[in-house]
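STRUCTURE REQUEST FORM
Protein name: Laccase
Source organism: Cinchona calisaya
Requested output: structure tokens
Priority: standard
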Amino acid sequence: MQAFNNMATSNLSTLFFFFGLLLLFANALSMANAKIHSHEFVIQATPVKRLCNTQNSITVNGQFPGPTLEVNNGDSLEIKVINRAQYNITIHWHGVRQMRTAWADGPEFVTQCPIRPGGSYIYRFTIQGQEGTLWWHAHSSWLRATVYGGLIIRPKEGDSYPFPKPKRESLLLLGEWWDANPIDVVNQATRTGAAPNVSDTFTINGQPGDLLKCSSNGTTIVPVDSGETNLIRVVNSGLNQQLFFTIANHKLTVVGADASYLKPFTTSVVMLGPGQTTDVLITTDQPPARYYIAARAYASAQGAPFDNTTTTAILEYKTAPCPAKGASVKPVLPLLPAYNDTPTATAFTTSLRSPRKVEVPTDIDDSLFFTVGLGLQNCPPGTSSQNCQGPNGTRFAASMNNVSFVLPSNFSLLQSHQEGIPGVFTTDFPAAPPVKFDYTGNVSQSLWQPVKATKVYKLKYGANVQLVLQGTSIFTAENHPIHLHGYDFYIIAEGFGNFNPKTDTAKFNLVDPPLRNTASVPVNGWAVIRFVADNPGVWLLHCHLDVHITWGLATAFIVEDGVGMLEKLESAPADLPVC
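Status: completed
Returned output:
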């Protein structure tokens, strides 16, 4: 019997040994296929003509929009950013998990000090377990108005999409264009305390489209042939506006968002908040012709000014008949929702599901409740009226849990956390609002004034986190696209009014919620997200409307190191910029 047991144990050991070897071989094979992509991004001023006028715009390598990066899941990137512009700059790789590489995340004064004019920095990171569409953009002042581009992540070599292979792929970056220097626009707003001027047009791949003046020649063309199934990757890279997106006479089958696959569903319109991406399949089954691809504002803030232009590109069938000589045939125009069509926006966001059952964190360690919304700051006595041009002589502000976030200026949050530098931030960001009130009702003006501070919230490595994001009606309610750096999260529910823990938990989808990096918190409503704090570092949580982050609608999570090397933040790179 003993001999039998020994033999069984020996066989089992041999089996485990060979299984281990097999795993190592598979890993080595995967690593062998993985590539390192090296790029150089030169930040420079470039003349760009739009809407009949030329602006000296900040660009990457003289391109607007900037270069598209194309990689496979598992690949690494090394991008040397050389700053030849007049402004400080950083680059954020929006949606990249940055596992243990927070130094490469990019938000100014959060994970790094800015790259000064004349300076450079190499961002090094690996794509791990993500496939689909992400993007990159400047994360310093409002430079991302013109400094942005796509990041396409295809499956590992040998793997395929979980949907029929598309005949063609197109990337459409939806942007905003000011007939001015965007830095001047935000600086004027900061000086006066008033809201910044809205953009002059939206763009698709940097072009307003032929409904706008002086814009016909550059209109983006998406070529197709009859009978194809094509993949269109859509990114809202605009600064301050949620957008509706559609293609005339064509159905859109949504298959992914924020570099995570989704259970396919068909729609005629997509709603994207700034920062969000959506992958759609289209079948070219219409009569050969030219069809407008169009985007315009979803403006949920009642009474607030917004850019009401419609940007267009053209879906052009190869066999579309040519117009007679001297004639011009306009492409087919699509129907777009009304600017304030919240039901359509809600119908879209609530249709998103993961393709299969997912592991949603259930035993919650940190149950958090953050209010998100606007506020007003009273001006101290003696302040010039020139600096108090907000409503009733105030200055606009924004906050989470009544804390209006102030970025440090002498050290980054990550550096001060890692090196134990005191006086840069405090870890007393409240887990719930300091005062409970009717968040979406008629809020007392005594609650309109947030406190300015650099407060962060600490999480232990591996903590299961639930975060309720509750919109407020202070000054005005609107839809807020809330982005968490360094993480994807499950959006398990959303709704209108005040979140009610007694009744709204019944709405939680713990089976197949969508995995995203930016959540659209409904106007006068709430969203609930869950994630596991498995990535050590300092991670910014903020509204992706740049006007709101400028006013302080942000905080940060500090996720502590875990046990062992694989749960610890990597050391700071030698070329990390200094403040």
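Reviewer notes: The radius of gyration is 25 Å. Residues 3-30 have pLDDT under 50 and may be disordered.
Form closed.
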